[in-house]
Design brief:
The structure holds three protein chains of three kinds. Chain A is an all-alpha fold. Chain A has one domain. Chain A is built from 22 helices and two strands. In chain A, strands 1-2 form a two-stranded antiparallel ribbon. In chain A, helix 4 runs antiparallel to helix 16, helix 4 packs parallel to helix 18 and helix 5 runs antiparallel to helix 16. The longest helix of chain A has about 30 residues. Chain B is built from 13 helices and eleven strands. In chain B, strand 6, helix 6 and strand 7 form a beta-alpha-beta unit. In chain B, about 45% of the residues lie in helices and about 15% in strands. The radius of gyration of chain B is 23 Å and the shape is globular. Chain C is mainly α. Chain C folds into two domains: about 55 residues; about 80 residues, no CATH class. The longest helix of chain C has 27 residues. Classes of the chains: A mainly alpha, B alpha/beta, C mainly alpha. At the A-C interface, helix 5, helix 10, helix 11, helix 19 and helix 20 of A face helix 1, helix 2, helix 3, helix 4 and helix 5 of C.
Chain lengths: ~500, ~325, ~160
Amino acid sequence: MIDALLEGLLLVLQWKAFAFMLLGIGIGFWVGLLPGLGGITTLALMLPFVYAMQPVEGFAFLLGMHSVVATTGDITSVLFGIPGEGTTAATILDGHAMAKKGEAGRALGAALASSLVGALVGAAALALAIPVVRPLVLAFGSPELFMIAIVGIAFIASLSAQGGRGMLRGFLAGGVGLLVATVGQDPQAGVSRFTFDSLYLWSGLDLVPVLIGIFAIPEIIDLVVRGTSIAGDMPKGRLNQGALEGVKDTFRHFWLTIRCSLIGTFIGIMPGLGGAVAQWLAYGHATQSARSAEERQGFGRGDVRGVLGPGAANNSKEGGALIPTVAFGVPGSSSMAILLGGFFLLGLVPGPDMLTTHLAVTFSMVWTIVVANIITVVVCFLFLNHLARLTLVRGHFLIPVILVLIFIGSYSSNNHYGDLLLMLTFGALGYLMVAGGWPRAPFVLGLVLGKIAENYLYISVARYEADWLYRPIVLVLIALAIAVMLYPLIQARRIRSRSVKHA
Amino acid sequence: MKSKLVFMGAFAAVAVALPVGAVQSASFEGKTITIVCGFKAGGGYDRTARILARHLPKYLPGNPNVIVQNMPGANSIIAANHVYNVAKPDGLTIGTFNRNLVLAQLTNVSGVKFDQTKFAWVGSAASESTVLAIRSDLPYKNFDDLKKSGKTLVIGATGPGANTYDFPLLLKELLGVDLKIVSGYSSSADIMLAIERKEVDARAGSYSSLRPFIDRKLVHPVIRARAIESGIEQLPVDESFAPTPRARAVMALRSAPEVVGRPYVMAPGTPDDVVKTMREAFSKALKDPELVAEATKAKMELEFMPGDEVLKIVKEVLSQPKDIVDEFAKYIKFGE
Amino acid sequence: MHSKASLILGAGIMLLSGAAVIIAMDWPWKAALFPIVIGIPVFCMATAEVIWGLLDPAARSEAMDFQLSAQLPQKIATRRTLLAVAWMLGFLAAIVLLGFPLTVALLVFVFVKFQGREGWVTSGIFTIVVWAFFYAIFDRLLHLPFPAGWIQTWVGLA
């Protein structure tokens, strides 16, 4: 295995493959940055060009492009409060809040450093998991995936404000998310649910316009109201304090970053959970690390841990998602589905062979992810302070550009004007939620997990009747879900006892 | 004298220009042709459209630019409506959409605003046959074994309207095969994982999507639908086991669109010569060695069926007697 | 604002979840199960939220989320908020009426010039640069379909 490891590295470092990787990085950089460009669509558009390349070159290009998207997507989320990609929305909550406090440089540094750590952990997991990956993935069947969705929904408790009222609103938001997820054709009876005879709603609500609406629109309204630049009237000195501080933060909270990377990797390995889930679970976990009531309140207002968690998770999940794609030929995420097409084009057959005879090629993919992320982070750091300075640009220059980008970003999912209406509708919802003090994260969690939970529940019951509840992993996950739900209460009690002790 | 020469010169010029002008009536010089695809980028329909877009220009007079635009939504009903109602019949818009739309029209799905018989049919770029593939470590080697087994076979499916669901449903309801259909998997690839996990035993689906797994010997096909693709000719056809003519007609109805696996149309009212030019271009492009090489690498099997043959099949489907359609609608709903 | 928004949300959710449950009751049980099982608790929770909100308007719960800036006096904040909303709705209307490409240029120019009160030259140059990027990437490179605006079709330009 060590020689395959080294052989893989050498394959990546061949100058042609390296050049293609750089090209891929160049393209992926902009794709992640611009909310109008989706990583998945661009991958699909790039596929035909891959046809003429050698396998390693082709992978270097595709993976180079793909690995970078999550990192630069974080940049847009931090600077402008717009999700650069569907997978970087969670970074907005604290990242953009920090930008508004004039700490854009620090937030970017933290996002980049945690992205790198996440990518490295994901790649390491891919490499180390190779002997165990087949039994691991095969052990998680539909019942287990349903329970993971339940654990995810349980995180709503952690994402809500403390106290009875806070919990009520958090669960309301989550419940609405779950309800909204049912719009569309159901896969059991084929009934068109809540579509009101509209062709547009037939396939359900597209995540991207909803996310853009619910996060970006309140920010834009607020920006117009404030009438200043994004960073407002913060003293200019703090801006350049920036990047290095953010990197130090990553190491200050090293174990949190690692844990969130592992969460991301794990979610990535489980096919069928979708790409948007990992960042929110990581965010929820990051909030659990708050040690006092004020700290917990600080989340969503600019706590750097809220950037570290999702930043790490959305990169590590890509390494994780590569595992089922390569080992089983089953894509771990929608972008992996396209990559799978690329694998076929390049003449590679995913399956057990990739872990044995073609191990070197698999390792070359791991190395590509590692090297691509390192290069991207280095390049971004060079420009970081310039990027951070965008937060000082006067609002009335930025606002029209942001508006154009979000309108196109929403439109380009389905090339349908309906998405623009959808974005504005959820923008209104997001605004009301922010004005009323309701948390938005549980809504997104409910929306993203709703279909997964419903489908896997039906599959589990149809296949195993009631027996699935007794499976060992399911029992463990039930315990985990309960623990996650109760954690805020335990946390609150611990805080209270600690303050009593100090009194 | 001079004026006569000038007049003759002018006359000659016009005489030469006229036939050239007439031949150029179907030229696309300097224009852009748009293929409107009813599905998102990356899927099977989209990839077929893009590979065609790359190789069509050299077979079209005037060497135009051919691009693909995705207009997903409502299972490509939106795209089909667009090509039918909005696109101009000038030959610059081609549509490709779900092969089952003819069945949607037949069963009066709400929102359908087109008539498949009135499209200007270019043709079909592939035929996509459905097979049922079962896990290789099961003791059934062929369909007879399966029928006689006495044990329930668990089938994974994505949802009504997909061939993963509809094909086994008819096998179960009309042929009485002991199947349990577990529906709700997010994609056919997830079903393959479930098969490896032994959560389900089998999956139905298009042969091309199952090929990698058949080649890997994870599953093997035991029965197919009517359309033929190389490699599955030997398999028994589901219709051949039908106990009644009505059951056979329902199964045939489900399979009928599969022969028109990748439909390509132009707006109704497109002039005949333009349609003819396009059909020829498609036919030649699909035989182009570069396209064939690229398609083989991408594991796509493309074959042209001209529009007039497709139109015959479409008309046949739409003229089925009401009692067959009603029986069909009992089982099959239009979906993804 | 805080309690008003909460009341609107609470009442809105009550309505939506109630309607959802009623609609779902007509469906076959497999399709209706999830919406009903989620819808009924959501309806109850929303009712609780509305009642709580009416009984105790001053109570706030701070979500772990950003808050709208409270620095400006209420009147100015409200006026500017409505202005922002008007811009967005105007943008949407213009896209439908005039088509994407023209609207992009129009929005950028009008916003920078009139809302931002920059000079003609600055506004003009900025608009051209932004529009060039937009056109190059989204039209030339990605071939996004931009339907003609209603006005263009009505006038016969499209």
